[in-house]
């Protein structure tokens, strides 16, 4: 079902017409009663009934609100422009908010692609763009948005690891922008049935579950230590190479392969060691 425009006229014109009908009807009733004119009395009653019927079609539409009009179960259309209107008498009026709204999901416990239990939550920013679909295609579209948002969040979370320890592919923690974009796309596909437009979705909470949080923290610490060691060794090798190149370029000291190996060993130990190096003074001759 697609949204369409409902027939209506300006409400102030309709209200003026109702007042005129009431005034004329009262005049005819009074005049007919005084003169004993049955035709005036009948016409006055008819005008009063018509005025009462027209009054049932008066409605007010607030800003950023849609008024969905139905007539005895038949969908007539929607009024989106704010104001005062006169529409079909005896029609039903259902209000649908078009304002931008937020939905904060609860913290969900999900297994990531590696099978690790994690806690995840998201916020979804959405608005209704088709009031007819929101009312007639789904039962309680707000509940539909909540359930589909949590379902999409579970599905996306189960496709990726919590942390890309190996550095390959996306991960929930390292690629938040990409994950948010995929979540928004999947949500839009799910919520299009309800006439809802997903403006944005973001992860608001991401953590390992309590039962494995300690073990995963140790793994992260170990990964960080290994990465730091790799950087230190890489820098130490560069420093040793630079030192040997400068000594050979100056020509002040001639180093054979054995002394180069000893120098490299000493420099690497001094640079890579966690503690300050203890100097050893060589008092013997060089040879």
Automatic annotation (TrEMBL):
Any idea which UniProt keywords this protein has?
Membrane, Transmembrane, Transmembrane helix
SMART domains recorded for this chain? PHB
Query: What parts of the sequence cross the membrane?
Result: 12-30, 36-61, 68-88
Domain Band: start-end pairs: 56-220
The UniProt entry, under PANTHER family, shows: BAND 7 DOMAIN-CONTAINING PROTEIN (PTHR43446:SF1), MEMBRANE PROTEIN-RELATED (PTHR43446)
Q: What is this protein called?
A: Band 7 domain-containing protein
Which species is listed as the source? Paenibacillus selenitireducens
């Amino acid at each position: 079902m697609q949204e369409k425009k409902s027939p209506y006229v300006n409400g102030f014109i309709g209200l003026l017409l109702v007042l005129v009908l009431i005034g004329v009807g009262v005049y005819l009733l009074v005049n007919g009663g005084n003169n004993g004119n049955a035709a005036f009395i009948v016409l006055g009653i008819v005008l009063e009934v018509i005025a009462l019927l027209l009054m049932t079609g008066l409605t007010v539409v607030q800003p950023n609100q849609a008024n969905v009009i139905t007539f005895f179960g038949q969908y007539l259309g929607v009024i989106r422009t704010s104001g005062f209107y006169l529409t079909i008498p005896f029609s039903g009026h259902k209000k649908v908010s078009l304002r931008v709204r937020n939905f904060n999901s609860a913290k969900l416990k999900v297994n990531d692609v590696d099978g690790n239990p994690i806690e995840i939550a998201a916020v979804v920013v959405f608005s209704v763009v088709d009031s007819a679909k929101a009312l007639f295609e789904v039962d309680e579209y707000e509940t539909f948005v909540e359930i589909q948002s949590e379902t999409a969040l579970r599905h996306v979370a189960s496709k990726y690891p919590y942390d890309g320890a190996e550095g390959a592919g996306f991960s929930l923690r390292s690629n938040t922008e990409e994950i948010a974009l995929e979540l928004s796309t999947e949500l839009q596909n799910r919520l299009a049935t309800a006439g809802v437009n997903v403006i944005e979705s973001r992860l608001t909470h991401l953590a390992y579950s309590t039962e494995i949080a300690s073990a995963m923290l140790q793994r992260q610490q170990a990964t960080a230590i290994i990465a730091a060691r790799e950087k230190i060794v890489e820098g130490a090798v560069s420093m040793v190479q630079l030192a040997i190149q400068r000594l050979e370029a100056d020509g002040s000291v001639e180093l054979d392969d054995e002394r180069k190996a000893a120098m490299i060993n000493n420099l690497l130990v001094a640079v890579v060691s966690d503690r300050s190096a203890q100097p050893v003074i060589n008092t013997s001759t060089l040879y």
